[in-house]
Amino acid sequence: MFKRNFLIAALGVLSAAGALSPLTASAQSNWPNKPIRLIVPYPAGGPVDQLARAIAPKLGEALGQNIIIDNKSGASGTIGMDAAIKAEPDGYTFGFGVPGGITVLPHLQKLPYALDDINYISLVGRVPQVITVGPQVPVKTLQELIALAKKEPGKINYGSAGNATTPHLGAELFAQEAGIKMVHIAYKGAAPAVTALLGGEIQVLAADLPAVLQFVSRGVKILAVSGPRRSEALPNVPTTTELGLPAVYSESNYGIIGPTALPAAIQQKMYNALVTVLNTPSVKTQIAGLGAVAISTTPDEYRKLMQQESVKWAAVLKASKITLD
Question: Which of 21, 210, 214, 238 could cross-link to 47 by cystine, CB 3.0-4.6 Å?
């Protein structure tokens, strides 16, 4: 009797599972049929938020649903990323992947999520980093800055948007490759760091281009783009590669990530929509106006880039002995 009841119960479970499968497949094929939430792990109005809002309207058009921006900041972007990674994998929550939470912080602390749980969709924008000096600094070229720093080792202060942020590591990478010593001062974000640069509290700042571009008119001098490619926004500014420092390659790569176990069919639809949007002339122009470069990649290309960046920054962290303390 027990065996008979067990078999009846088991068949009932299998029958229920079979009934659910077509519904799941139907939900995937009809996706999306309601607005989609895009978690941005930084505050509204900042450079990352502006990048997200540059693609949201066209992405919504491509998918036939509104894209709702949800700013969930804190803990260097890891709070928002954690929320996106652990969201219900139904295709109605995605997030902005930020480099620090993938390539830097895992080397310094235990994160609330595992890197293997990140569902990469596509890159969205490549933001070049630049090396700048304040109005009071008596140099006009990167070579002159290096010469001044060698003449006065340890007397030049450089700022960052925060300890162990990619701008901090970018400046350390520059110092290591140039063979100079500078003193780091961390600020709570790019905005106060730029204010300090203008006011003379710091002399040097490595920053994402959008954070400093508008302050050139107020005396900020951009000496070099950290990488092999010149910026369309600064066609006359040389690269570190041109100036003999090819290893000084630092940029911030932002992309769309999804929850763990996101169905492959939904991931593919989102990827296709992103490729379409990022190749739209108006979107490319808008992103260029932010000092960034629109770029799409396959999920595997995105993942491999983050792995490469992680190896690079791990070496910089070890050489400079940077910690979160």
Answer: 210
